[in-house]
Structure formats: structure tokens, C-alpha cells
């Protein structure tokens, strides 16, 4: 809130003369916003006295600033959920002093709730409902009307032909409010609440949970069960009910004002019907609750609550809320996490580390960009140098020990986090503790993890530094030095067919030859695919690509910029060499062969080749799945290239779609204007018709471009999934024939990469589900592969 106010004042430079006239009211509004937003933060006075004082100030300002106060309170209910009970108490005190204001606030909250649901802002809607439920404790809302709202929410579970995720969300909202208000509702409406519980229980028992295995961080159920979020929350609420609704962790400042609040008149919520299902609506995806620690992992100090205690849910929910509110300001976020209320009653550092890793590993995607979690953990280590680094080291050790059963997507994120983290601490780590993995097959997860971490670390440092920090025994895992492999390097290569031409091409490039001159030289390069007496048209000549691209990249090997500049300068030659699909795949093969010791360079050059339309996305997919890249198939950089390629295709389609929408809007406005101005001069009408005609032509062209781009995108996914199916089927048949176990490290990696493609690009893939089902994921497919597709479909059932 305060950030928004700050940016508004910066952007209003031209409005100073207006500001002077209304400066006093604006100053008061700013002061009110500041007072409301900061209540509950560190202060010399108690929270209760601060709340009482603030309620007095707001009550005095209600006659003049009621609408502003309503807006601020509705906004904090939605945007600062970690201070929920502080604000519900404040509203309770205001309601006790001014009944009409309380009624207007409840109405404003219901309006806001309808608006958030209409706009698919489901996370914010959860906070609004939770806020309303806590107002029952503050005697603002009558308990029976809250129960009626919950009953309407749970009625969604009886709807037919709607996605399961819709009912999931409404059940989650009700269950997630009960730690705050369950006791009060059960005391007032026990029969209705029992009926509600019975309906929830029935729904949870008949839920389809095919999707769970796709979303789990670990496949192993030990040492910690990886539970689906609704199952876990239901177990926590049932335990809370069994414990007579006694919980010891929610801050409840309204208890201190009970004598005042219980005298207040209560409001009934207006009847609230959940908005109906709209086909294509995007509901929140289900997720699995991440568990990493239990009470045995935090040996000293307070005991960590059990996984089915409601305190665990409340603590985690509040920590998630703090991160959600402050994630853009790492210093503030770290400070807020460490000053969590009630921190002396729990092992806070363990909870914070578990929640941060839980978000980082969340599937299909982390709530925020990965680098945010790295910077946040670094900031926490700075603020708590005596304790948090030890907990983080313990967590890293645990994650390493459990790599065998960890999801491949999560291993990728762990590699990126750990290498970035190490780079901020001089790459210091107790590497010797992990030396056991050196005797393993290097394709196993642990040695592979170390190799990938060192490769990523080298991007943030340099080769010799990595050699110096890692024990000599790890030499097999240290990546090769980032040097260019030039096949025409010296006299020893003179026997190679393209050697003489490479010398000529190199000299020509150094002498600033034009594209035409280079093409003339390449015309003389013999074609190994063509017999001497073959006079039929010129077939694809791989040697031309080898000679030209190897020589060009060798001369430009000094830096990324040199390479980009070289590709740009000889764009025409490269386009001529890649006229067919064979040429496009071969150019990628040559880039890899030259820079195989520098995966980052391969990735950025492939990216550049796609951007400059020298190769297309399908060619990249075909190359990555080709036999030439089979030995690199499980390497992280291969999958970074594939996902980057899919995202590029996605952005391309979105860009053309946006241009089409803009052209349609423009035409619509033009037609409105034409109707409005009809009856004016004929010349104007003629000009208007010409403009409309041009726009209609532009729309037709863009429509064709959109259809072509979507066809290309669909083809890309067909290529990727077809290659996955071929590779996996070959492996399964080979294992069946040889009576071998199918669960090799390669198989685990491949099947989880298939899941990763589905999860990371689920929104786009859903557009082509019909085609995929008809052509690839048919009933005849091996059940092991088909199961992945069925898990994906279950995510939005």
C-alpha cells in the first residue's frame, strides 16, 4: 500500500498546483493509510493500546474520511493476510463504536469478494473469506450467517459436470477458515457444522487423486509423507476438532477487548451464492504439502508441531503470507519472517527454511521467480549468522541424501539454488562429506547433481577456481574447460575433406568478404552425399555447414557478443545453408560439436539462431532428441534449451494474437465512428471505407499468421511427445525382452522430463489435448507412458 502511494506521488509532478489546494486532506489520508498499515509492527506500546488508540483516531475521522477508511481496511484484508486478527480486532472496535460503519464494511467486503471471484483472484478470495470468518470472533458478523455462507460453498461439491478443482477450492476455503473460527461456530451451530463436516468427508472420499504422484517432490513416503493438500488439511482440522478446538498459535488480540466487543450489535452476511462455473475458467491447481523436518530434526529449543497439528498449518500459512506480501523486497521479507509473532514457542528457523524450500520446489511452478528464494535465504543468513546457516546446511544435506527419490524438476531447481548460493559464500562447502558418491555410477542422481552444480558454478566463476575449491578426488565430476573445439585447427586436420575450404573461408572472413563472396567459395565445397556422376539437383551438403560455421564460430569464439555479431553479419549465408529441415538440424549439431565444453554458449547460440529464424523450434526439438545428443540426454542444459524453445514459440503465438486483437479493436472503433459520422460529407465517408478495407485486409493477414503459428506450435508439441514416446517405448521393450528392471536412472529422468514438459507448459498444451489424445496418447500406448498423460488430465478435472 505504502509503495503504491509513493509511486503515485512520484508520477504526479505536473499536478503540484492542484496538490497545494488539497494538500491537507491528502496529508490526512496518507497519515490514515500509514497508521492502518503499520499497526501491529514493532512498537514501545502494547498491541492492544495501539489498536484502541487507532480505533479512536479512525472513529474521529469517519465523518470526513469514511470511504477512504473503508477502502484501506478492505485492501489490508486482501493484501496483508499475515496481520488478519489485528485488523479484524480493529474492525470489531469500530463496529462497537459505530454500528452503521460495521455494516458498510461487511457490505464492502462482500462486494470485494464477488469481484475477486469474478476476476479469478482465488488466493485473495481465500484471505477475504478468512477475514469475514474471524469477524465472527469479534462480534461483527453473526455466526449463523457465516455457517450459511459455508453451506453455500460446500454445496458446490454437489454440482455436476464441473471440474473437481472448482469444488476443491471451495472446500479448501471453508477448511482453512476453521482454525480461526471453528470453535465459535461449533458452540453456536454444532448440528449444522456436523452436517457440513459429513458433506466434506463424503466429497474427500470420492475425490479422484490421479494427479498426486505428478506433484510430489519425493516419490518415497519415508521419512515424511508427501500428502495432497486437502487430505492434509482435513486431517489437521479433524485433530483440532478432537482437541476441542484448542490451538495455541493464532494471535487473538480481540480477547483483550471481549467486554467491549460482546456488547456490540452483530450483522448478518447477505446470502452469498458462489458464481457459476464458466467453461475455460482457471481454478487453482492442487498441490502436495512439502514436508522436510519433524520434531527430531530440531534437537534443541522448542518442539516442532506435528504434521497433522493445526499449528503447523497456521505457522506455514502465515509464513507463506509474509513471503507473498514482501517478496519483492528481500531485506524486508527476511526481517518480517524473523520477527514472526510467537517465534519463541517454535523452532522458527526450521519452519522458515522448510516453507522457502516448499515454495521453491512447488509443482508445476514456484509462486515467485527462483532467484528470489536464493536472495531471501542469503539475507536470512546475514540476519541470523549464528543459527540459520546451520539449519540451511542441515537442509541441504537432507536434500542431497534424498536425491534418489526426488523429482527431476525439483533437482533442477536445487542445482540452480545451490550453485547460486555457493557463489555468494566463496564456494565453501564440506565436499569431502559427499565423497561416497564417487564410487557410484556417474549417471546416478548424487554424482550427477554434483557435476551439474559445478557446471552451473563455473558459469558464476571460472574453471580454475572450481578446480581449486573441489578436492582432487572429485576430478571426474569437474566440468571440462570452456574451450572451443575447432576441427580444422592445424596441419593434423589437413586430411579432413573440408580443410582447404576452411582456410579459404577463414581468410575471406578476415578480409571482410560479403555474403555473396562466401557463398561463391562454399559452392566449390564437394558434397559427400552426392556421387560424382549424380547430375540431379543439388542435395543437402553437410560439409558446407561444417566448413563455414566451424570457421566462423572459431574466429568469433572470444565472447558471446563476438559470436552474436558474426551470426548477424552472415545471416544470409546461414539462411542459404539451412533451406531444408536437414540443414537446420545439422547447423545445431555443428554448434554443439564446436562448443560441447561450454553448455551455456550452446544454449545462447541456439537461442540466437531461433530469434534470427535461421532454425525453427521443431528443428531444435528434433536435434535434442536425435541420436547425436543421446549421450547428453539427461544433462540439465539440454532441457533448459528445450523449455526455452517452447517458451519462444509461445511468445511468438501470443504476440501475433495480440496484434490481431488490437486490429479488431481498431476496426470496431472505426465502424462506430463511421456510424456516428454517417450523413457527413461523401469524401469523409469514402476515406473511412478505405481505412476499414485496409484494416479488414490486415485482420485477414493476421488471422492467417495466427493459424500458421498455432499449427507450428501444435507440430512442436507433437514432435516432442512423439520422440518421448519412441524413446520410452524402446527402453520398455528392451527391458521386457532382456527381463531387466525398467526403473533405471535414465528411465526415471526421462519419464519425469515428460511430466515436466506437461507441467511447465500446461496452459498451452491444454489447447491441443484433442489432437494429442487422438494421435499419440491412445489406449494402445504402454500404461507407464499413458499414466503421465492421465495424471496431467487429472490436474484440471
TrEMBL record:
<dbReference type="InterPro" id="IPR003890">
    <property type="entry name" value="MIF4G-like_typ-3"/>
</dbReference>
<feature type="domain" description="MIF4G">
    <location>
        <begin position="29"/>
        <end position="241"/>
    </location>
</feature>
<dbReference type="GO" id="GO:0031047">
    <property type="term" value="P:regulatory ncRNA-mediated gene silencing"/>
</dbReference>
<keyword id="KW-0943">RNA-mediated gene silencing</keyword>
<keyword id="KW-0866">Nonsense-mediated mRNA decay</keyword>
<dbReference type="InterPro" id="IPR015172">
    <property type="entry name" value="MIF4G-like_typ-1"/>
</dbReference>
<protein>
    <submittedName>
        <fullName>Nuclear cap-binding protein subunit 1</fullName>
    </submittedName>
</protein>
<keyword id="KW-0810">Translation regulation</keyword>
<keyword id="KW-0508">mRNA splicing</keyword>
<feature type="compositionally biased region" description="Acidic residues">
    <location>
        <begin position="679"/>
        <end position="697"/>
    </location>
</feature>
<keyword id="KW-0963">Cytoplasm</keyword>
<dbReference type="GO" id="GO:0006417">
    <property type="term" value="P:regulation of translation"/>
</dbReference>
<keyword id="KW-0813">Transport</keyword>
<keyword id="KW-0175">Coiled coil</keyword>
<dbReference type="Pfam" id="PF09090">
    <property type="entry name" value="MIF4G_like_2"/>
</dbReference>
<dbReference type="InterPro" id="IPR016024">
    <property type="entry name" value="ARM-type_fold"/>
</dbReference>
<dbReference type="InterPro" id="IPR015174">
    <property type="entry name" value="MIF4G-like_typ-2"/>
</dbReference>
<keyword id="KW-0509">mRNA transport</keyword>
<dbReference type="GO" id="GO:0005846">
    <property type="term" value="C:nuclear cap binding complex"/>
</dbReference>
<dbReference type="GO" id="GO:0005634">
    <property type="term" value="C:nucleus"/>
</dbReference>
<feature type="region of interest" description="Disordered">
    <location>
        <begin position="665"/>
        <end position="704"/>
    </location>
</feature>
<dbReference type="GO" id="GO:0000184">
    <property type="term" value="P:nuclear-transcribed mRNA catabolic process, nonsense-mediated decay"/>
</dbReference>
<dbReference type="GO" id="GO:0050684">
    <property type="term" value="P:regulation of mRNA processing"/>
</dbReference>
<keyword id="KW-0507">mRNA processing</keyword>
<comment type="similarity">
    <text>Belongs to the NCBP1 family.</text>
</comment>
<keyword id="KW-0539">Nucleus</keyword>
<dbReference type="Pfam" id="PF02854">
    <property type="entry name" value="MIF4G"/>
</dbReference>
<feature type="region of interest" description="Disordered">
    <location>
        <begin position="1"/>
        <end position="25"/>
    </location>
</feature>
<dbReference type="Pfam" id="PF09088">
    <property type="entry name" value="MIF4G_like"/>
</dbReference>
<keyword id="KW-0506">mRNA capping</keyword>
<dbReference type="GO" id="GO:0000339">
    <property type="term" value="F:RNA cap binding"/>
</dbReference>
<dbReference type="GO" id="GO:0006370">
    <property type="term" value="P:7-methylguanosine mRNA capping"/>
</dbReference>
<dbReference type="GO" id="GO:0003729">
    <property type="term" value="F:mRNA binding"/>
</dbReference>
<dbReference type="GO" id="GO:0008380">
    <property type="term" value="P:RNA splicing"/>
</dbReference>
<dbReference type="GO" id="GO:0005737">
    <property type="term" value="C:cytoplasm"/>
</dbReference>
<dbReference type="GO" id="GO:0006406">
    <property type="term" value="P:mRNA export from nucleus"/>
</dbReference>
<dbReference type="InterPro" id="IPR027159">
    <property type="entry name" value="CBP80"/>
</dbReference>
Amino acid at each position: 500500500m505504502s509503495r503504491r502511494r509513493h509511486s503515485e506521488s512520484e508520477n504526479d509532478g505536473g499536478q503540484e498546483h492542484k496538490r497545494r489546494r488539497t494538500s491537507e486532506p491528502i496529508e490526512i489520508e496518507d497519515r490514515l493509510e500509514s497508521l492502518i498499515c503499520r499497526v501491529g509492527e514493532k512498537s514501545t506500546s502494547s498491541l492492544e493500546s495501539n489498536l484502541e488508540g487507532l480505533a479512536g483516531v479512525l472513529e474521529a475521522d469517519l465523518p470526513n474520511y469514511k470511504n477512504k477508511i473503508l477502502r484501506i481496511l478492505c485492501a489490508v484484508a486482501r493484501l496483508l493476510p499475515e496481520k488478519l486478527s489485528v485488523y479484524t480486532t480493529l474492525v470489531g472496535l469500530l463496529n462497537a463504536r459505530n454500528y452503521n460503519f460495521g455494516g458498510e464494511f461487511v457490505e464492502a467486503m462482500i462486494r470485494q469478494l464477488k469481484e475477486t471471484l469474478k476476476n479469478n483472484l482465488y488466493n485473495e478470495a481465500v484471505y477475504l473469506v478468512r477475514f469475514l470468518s474471524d469477524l465472527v470472533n469479534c462480534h461483527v458478523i453473526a455466526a449463523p450467517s457465516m455457517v450459511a455462507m459455508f453451506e453455500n460453498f460446500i454445496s458446490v461439491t454437489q454440482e455436476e459436470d464441473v471440474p473437481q478443482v472448482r469444488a476443491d477450492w471451495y472446500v479448501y476455503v471453508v477448511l482453512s477458515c476453521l482454525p480461526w473460527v471453528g470453535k465459535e461456530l461449533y458452540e453456536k451451530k454444532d448440528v449444522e457444522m456436523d452436517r457440513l463436516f459429513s458433506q466434506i468427508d463424503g466429497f474427500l472420499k470420492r475425490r479422484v487423486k490421479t494427479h498426486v504422484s505428478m506433484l510430489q517432490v519425493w516419490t518415497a513416503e519415508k521419512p515424511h509423507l508427501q500428502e495432497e493438500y486437502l487430505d492434509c488439511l482435513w486431517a489437521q482440522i479433524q485433530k483440532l476438532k478432537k482437541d476441542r478446538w484448542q490451538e495455541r498459535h493464532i494471535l487473538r488480540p480481540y480477547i483483550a477487548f471481549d467486554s467491549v466487543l460482546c456488547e456490540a450489535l452483530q450483522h448478518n452476511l447477505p446470502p452469498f451464492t458462489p458464481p457459476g462455473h464458466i467453461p475455460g475458467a482457471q481454478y487453482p491447481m492442487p498441490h502436495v504439502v512439502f514436508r522436510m523436518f519433524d520434531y527430531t530434526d530440531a534437537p534443541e529449543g522448542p518442539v516442532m508441531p506435528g504434521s497433522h497439528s493445526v499449528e503447523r498449518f497456521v505457522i506455514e500459512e502465515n509464513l507463506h503470507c509474509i513471503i507473498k506480501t514482501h517478496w519483492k523486497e528481500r531485506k524486508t521479507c527476511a526481517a518480517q519472517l524473523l520477527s514472526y509473532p510467537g517465534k519463541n514457542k517454535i523452532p522458527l528457523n526450521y519452519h522458515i527454511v522448510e516453507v522457502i524450500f516448499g515454495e521453491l520446489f512447488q509443482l508445476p511452478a514456484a509462486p515467485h521467480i527462483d532467484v528470489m528464494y536464493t536472495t531471501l535465504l542469503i539475507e536470512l543468513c546475514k540476519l541470523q549468522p549464528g543459527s540459520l546457516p546451520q539449519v540451511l546446511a542441515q537442509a541441504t544435506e537432507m536434500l542431497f541424501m534424498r536425491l534418489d527419490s526426488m523429482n527431476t524438476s525439483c533437482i533442477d531447481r536445487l542445482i540452480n539454488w545451490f550453485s547460486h548460493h555457493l557463489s555468494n559464500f566463496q564456494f565453501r562447502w564440506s565436499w569431502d562429506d559427499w565423497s561416497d558418491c564417487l564410487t557410484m555410477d556417474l549417471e546416478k542422481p548424487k554424482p550427477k547433481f554434483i557435476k551439474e552444480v559445478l557446471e552451473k558454478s563455473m558459469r558464476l566463476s571460472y574453471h580454475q577456481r572450481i578446480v581449486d575449491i573441489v578436492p582432487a578426488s572429485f576430478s571426474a565430476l569437474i566440468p571440462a574447460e570452456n574451450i572451443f573445439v575447432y576441427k580444422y585447427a592445424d596441419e593434423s586436420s589437413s586430411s579432413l575433406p573440408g580443410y582447404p575450404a576452411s582456410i579459404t573461408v577463414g581468410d575471406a572472413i578476415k578480409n571482410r568478404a560479403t555474403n555473396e563472396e562466401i557463398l561463391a567459395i562454399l559452392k566449390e565445397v564437394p558434397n559427400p552425399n552426392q556421387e560424382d556422376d549424380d547430375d540431379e539437383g543439388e542435395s543437402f551438403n553437410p560439409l558446407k555447414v561444417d566448413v563455414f560455421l566451424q570457421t566462423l564460430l572459431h574466429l568469433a569464439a572470444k565472447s558471446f557478443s563476438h559470436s552474436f555479431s558474426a551470426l548477424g553479419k552472415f545471416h544470409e549465408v546461414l539462411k542459404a545453408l539451412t533451406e531444408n529441415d536437414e540443414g537446420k538440424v545439422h547447423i545445431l549439431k555443428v554448434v554443439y560439436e564446436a562448443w560441447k565444453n561450454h553448455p551455456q554458449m550452446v544454449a545462447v547460440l541456439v537461442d540466437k539462431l531461433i530469434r534470427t529464424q535461421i532454425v525453427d523450434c521443431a528443428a531444435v526439438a528434433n536435434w535434442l532428441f536425435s541420436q547425436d545428443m543421446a549421450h547428453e540426454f539427461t544433462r540439465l542444459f539440454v532441457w533448459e534449451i528445450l523449455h526455452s524453445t517452447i517458451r519462444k514459440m509461445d511468445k511468438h503465438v501470443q504476440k501475433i494474437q495480440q496484434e490481431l486483437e488490437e486490429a479488431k479493436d481498431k476496426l470496431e472503433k472505426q465502424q462506430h465512428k463511421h456510424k456516428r459520422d454517417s450523413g457527413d460529407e461523401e469524401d469523409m465517408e469514402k476515406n473511412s471505407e478505405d481505412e476499414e478495407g485496409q484494416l479488414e485486409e490486415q485482420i485477414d493477414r493476421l488471422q492467417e499468421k495466427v493459424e500458421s503459428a498455432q499449427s507450428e506450435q501444435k507440430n512442436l508439441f507433437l514432435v516432442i511427445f512423439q520422440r518421448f514416446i519412441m524413446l520410452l517405448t524402446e527402453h520398455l521393450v528392451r527391458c521386457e525382452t532382456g527381463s531387466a528392471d525398467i526403473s533405471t536412472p535414465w528411465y526415471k529422468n526421462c519419464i519425469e522430463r515428460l511430466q515436466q514438459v506437461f507441467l511447465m507448459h500446461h496452459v498451452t498444451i491444454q489447447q491441443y489435448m484433442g489432437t494429442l489424445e487422438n494421435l499419440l496418447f491412445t489406449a494402445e500406448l504402454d500404461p507407464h507412458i499413458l499414466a503421465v498423460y492421465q495424471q496431467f488430465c487429472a490436474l484440471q478435472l
